[in-house]
Amino acid sequence: AFWGNAPRKVVQFLIESHETYSPDHILDWGSMIVSLGEVNATDSIWNLMQQNHFPDQTINWEECAMKLARSQCASIETFQLLLWLSVANRLDALDVGKWQNKVEILISECPDDRNVREERAKLLYSNFAYCEQLKEA
Fold first, then answer.
1. Nearest CA to 47 among 112, 102, 101, 1?
2. What is the pLDDT of residue 52?
3. Contact, 5 vs 45, CB < 8 A?
4. Integer Cα distance of 137 and 20 in angstroms
5. Could you give phi then psi for residue 85, rounded to 5 degrees?
6. Quick one: which of 46, 86, 47 has its CA closest to 66?
7. How far, in Å, CA of 17 to CA of 15, rounded?
8. Which residues contact 1 (CB under 8 A, 6 or more apart)?
9. pTM recorded for the entire structure
10. What mean pLDDT is predicted for residues 116-132?
11. Phi, psi of 53 (to 5 degrees)
């Protein structure tokens, strides 16, 4: 339904049916996000983000971004979106205003070169880890 841009009511019905008939089944959100990313369905990714239907099930955004970094199909815009989603909560937790600008620049200036994407993501994540360690000290 997400891939076919089904009407919101259809998606809502499917989600409610899943919650009713399979409440213990855990959906593989990460694979869904990567699949959506590989077809550059950024609107569908945003819809998933905004509709937190399964709050107990998490998405490992960093893992999704790293998979898209290696993807031959994902556009640079889709990769940048996933990269941003993967660090947004960490950035908020650090609460350092000047870091926001640096992160925005790192993401927005990421070249459309699949060989560089993974390295750029690793650099971003290692910088976050360093800053998080400094904040804890």
1. 1
2. 61
3. no
4. 46
5. -60, -30
6. 86
7. 5
8. 10, 11, 14
9. 0.75
10. 89
11. -75, -25
